[in-house]
Amino acid sequence: MPTLAFVVTLGVRYLLVILFFPFSALDKMLGFKGAVGQAQEVVSSRAVASLLLLAGLCVEIVMPLLILTGVADRLAAFVMAGYCMLTALLWKRFWHPGDFWKGGDSKGRGLFWDFLKNFSLAGGFLLITFGSMTLGGFIADPFSSTHPYASHEQEPAP
């Protein structure tokens, strides 16, 4: 039977990746044409936009699974942090609409909050990456695991 520590660890990790797996990945698969159109906001070529979308799908499916299972989870979390920051910079450009400083609700302000949420998620992923390891340790062994489900201490029996 799973321990409380196991359930909490799995639950916390799932809360961190739930946006991507299954929801964002599923949205991209079900609305592929529209997602390619959104990608074309950054790159005009439909072929390149499709490749970007497929790469994003791979990241949004594979990396969360690695984070959830604890297999190479430091590297997976590092990739997810980069993905969150890159997508914020490319598609959450709150400065682009030009209405950020106008009074009231604006497209720029809505994008600003999405931009910050992406960077906040990146911070959570970086906690998995570097929470108990130095940068040098990560570089030396990027495929290492945090061993999130290793039992360091038995819970007392009821």
Would you write up a description of this structure?
This protein has 158 residues and is mainly alpha-helical. The protein has one domain. It is built from seven helices and no strands. It has helices at 4-17, 19-30, 32-39, 46-69, 73-91, 107-130, 135-140. α5 runs antiparallel to α6 (107-130). The model has no long low-confidence stretch (mean pLDDT 93).
| SS-based class | mainly alpha
Rg (CA only): 18 Å
What global shape is seen?
globular
Percent of residues in helices comes to 55-70%
Which stretches are low in confidence, meaning pLDDT under 50 for 5 or more residues running?
none
Q: What's the N-to-C terminus distance?
A: 13 Å
Largest sheet: none
The helix tally amounts to 7
Helix-strand pattern, N to C? HHHHHHH
Structure summary:
The protein is mainly alpha-helical and 158 residues long. It is built from 7 helices and no strands.
List its traits.
single chain; 158 residues; 68% helix
Give the topology.
Elements (H helix, E strand, L loop, with lengths): L3 H14 L1 H12 L1 H8 L6 H24 L3 H19 L15 H24 L4 H6 L18
Helix pairs in contact: 2-3, 2-4, 3-4, 4-5, 5-6
